[in-house]
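Course assignment 3, question 2. Fill in each field.
Student: A.L.
Task: Predict the tertiary structure for the chain below.
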Amino acid sequence: MGPSYDFASANSKANHHTSLAITPVDPNEPISAPIISSYNQRIRPLLDAIDKLRELMVMEEGIQLPTIVVVGDQSSGKSSVLESLAGISLPRGQGICTRVPLVMKLQNHSDPQPELSLEFNGEVTFTDEDHISEDINDVTERIAGRGKGISNSPITLVVKKLGVPDLTMVDLPGITRVPVHGQPENIYEQIRDIIMEYITPEESIILNVLSATVDFTTCESIRMSQSVDKTGERTLAVVTKADKAPEGLLEKVTADDVNIGLGYVCVRNRIGNESYEEARVEEANLFQTHPLLSRIDKSIVGIPVLAQKLVEIQATSIARNLPEIVKKIDDKLNTSVGELKKLPKHVNSAAEATTTFMQIVGVVKESLRKILLRGEFEEYQDDKHMHCTARLAERLSEFSDELHTCAESDPIGDFLMDEIKILEESKEISLPNFLPRTAFLGLLNRKVKGISGKPIEFVGDLWDYIEEVVMKVLMQHVEDYYQLQLSTRRAGQNLIAKMKERSIKWMQEIVEMEMVTDYTCNPEYISEWNKLMAQRDMFLFELFENEARPSKVKIDGLWKVEHYDNKNRCGAPIKVERLGEIEVEGLRQYRHLIPQAFDLRMRMIAYWKIVLRRFVDCMALHLQLSVRNLVDKELEMEIISESVASHVGGIEKLMEELPSVASKRVRLNRSIKKLRDCKAVVANMRDRIVSYGD
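Answer field:
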C-alpha cells in the first residue's frame, strides 16, 4: 500500500482554512476503493447543492460557484484524463474535440448499471456507454454547428456510475493558436475568452493538463492560469503521457518552475483498446517499476490519487465558499425584490390605470408640497438645488440687495442736482416755500422707471427655477410611462408659462402703480423724514457759513481789506449724519433752491425705502400664493386636462409602461424566482458546513 496523502500539509501555501483528512490510497486497488467512502457520502449533499445552483444558473446573477475548470493545450491529453476519471469514452479525433464547455457531473452510484444523460438548452437526453461519445458529438453540432467552430453554450454530462469520484468539472476547448480548415481565423481568441471567463473567478479551481512531452513554461494553458492565479494557490497540474517522456519528469514536478500551488499529479494515458481496469494496472506498474518514474513520490502519481485530490480540493472549496454564496444569494434577492417594488404598478384595466394615474398625481403633489411649501428635503437630501424654500428665500434676499444697491437707490449721488433741476421746471406763480407735489412725483417716476426692468426680470428667473423643480419632480414620477411623460411635460410647461405670464403682468401693474402715485401709511416714512430733516440746518450752515469773506490784513504797516477764498474749507465734502460725506461742489449757486431741494431729497430717501420694501414684500406674498395654488389646485387640473381629456386611446394607453420597464419587470421576476429556488437549495447547508470540516 502506498503512503498516505496529507492534503493540509501538501497545500499549506494555498492558505486554505479548512482541511480534510484523506484515506490512504493503494494504486493497485480498484478505482471504487478510494472513492466509495464515508468521506464522499458526507460531501455529496454539498456537491449536490452546488450542482443544483449551477443548474439554476445562479452565475447569471453574478454569483460565482466553486468549480473545477479543466484547461490544457490541444493534444495535451485532457480527454484521456477525464475518461479515466469518469470511466467512459469521450469524443476523440484530430483538432479540437471539445467545442463547447462540457460540465461533467460524476456521481458514485450503488447500482452496477450506469446511468448517463446529457442536458442542454433545457432538454435531457439519456444515453449509455456505447453511445455517449456519438451523442456528445450530435449535441455539440446542434449547439456549435457541423464545422469546427466553438460555442460558449454548455452541455451537461451526468455520469452515475459505481466507483467514480463525486466530482463536478467543466472541460473547456483545448487551446490552439493556428486555425485549421473550417475554423474561424480568431479561433484562439474565442477559446481564450471562454477559458478566461471560467478561470478568472476566485472560486474556480484550475485543473491544468500538461503533456510530459513539452516544456511546461511554454504551455499556453500555464500562461493563462498564471494571469489570473499568480501565486498558483488554486491551480493543480496533471502531467499526462508520463510513459512517453520519462526523462527529467521528476525534476520538472519537483522544481515547479511554473508555480503550481496545489501540486502535480503524474498519470499514464489509456492506450489503444485497454479497458479502464487494465489501464489502471499498467499505470501502477509503470510508476512502480520504471527506472525513472518509480523515483517519483507515490503520493503524486496515478488516477486514484488525482481523483482523491480533486474530491478533497472540491470539498474544501465548497466548505469555504458556501457561506458567502448563501449571503450573496440573500443580498441579491433582497436587491431584486427592492428593485421590483420600485417599478410602477402594471395596469390591466381602465380602473387600475385611473387609480395608478391619480396615485402618481397625488405623489407628485406631496413631493412638491414638501420642497416648495414645507421645506422638507428628505427626498432630495444631497441635491441642494431642490431645497426650494431655502433657494427661494435666497433669491428674494438677492433681489432685495440688488434693488438697494442700484444707482437709483444711492441717497447722495448727484446730491440735490436732480431736485434742483425739477424744482426750477416746477416754478409757478404762487406763494413761496411750498413744495410742489409734481416735483416729487416726477422724481419718483424717474426712479421707478430706472429699476422697472429688475422686478420683471426677477419674476421671470423665479418661474424658470420653479419650472426646473416641477419638471424634475414630474419626470421622476412618470419616467416609466412614456405617453404620460409626454402629456405631463406639456401640462407642466403650459401651466408654468401661464403662471409666469400672470406674475409678470401682476408685477408690471405694481411697477405702474408705483410710478403714477405716492402713498404710504407706514409711520416709518414720517419718522425717517424727520430724522433726516434734522440735519438740514447743520448742512446749510456748513454749506453757506464757510464761504469766502473779506478780511483785514496788515501790509507794509498799513491795514488793508482783502478778499480770500478758504479753499481748504469750501471745497471739502460735508458730512451729514445718516447719509455720510456729500460732495457739494457747484451747489452754492442754487442758494435759493437748496432748502427745498434738501427737503425733497429727504422725502424721497424716506419714501424710496418704503417703495423697495413694497416690491420685495409683494413679490414674496405673490410667490407663496402662486406656488400654493400651483401645487394644491392648478397642477392637478392641468395634468388631468392635458393627459386624460386630450389623449387619444384613453387612460389605459396613457398608462402603458415603457418596453424597457416591461422587460425589466420580466427579468426581475425571473431573477427573484431563480434566487428563491437557490435559497431553498442552500437553506439547510449552513449547519452541515461545520461538520464537514471536523
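Instructor remarks: The chain has 23 helices and 13 strands. The first helix runs from residue 7 to 10.
Grade: pending
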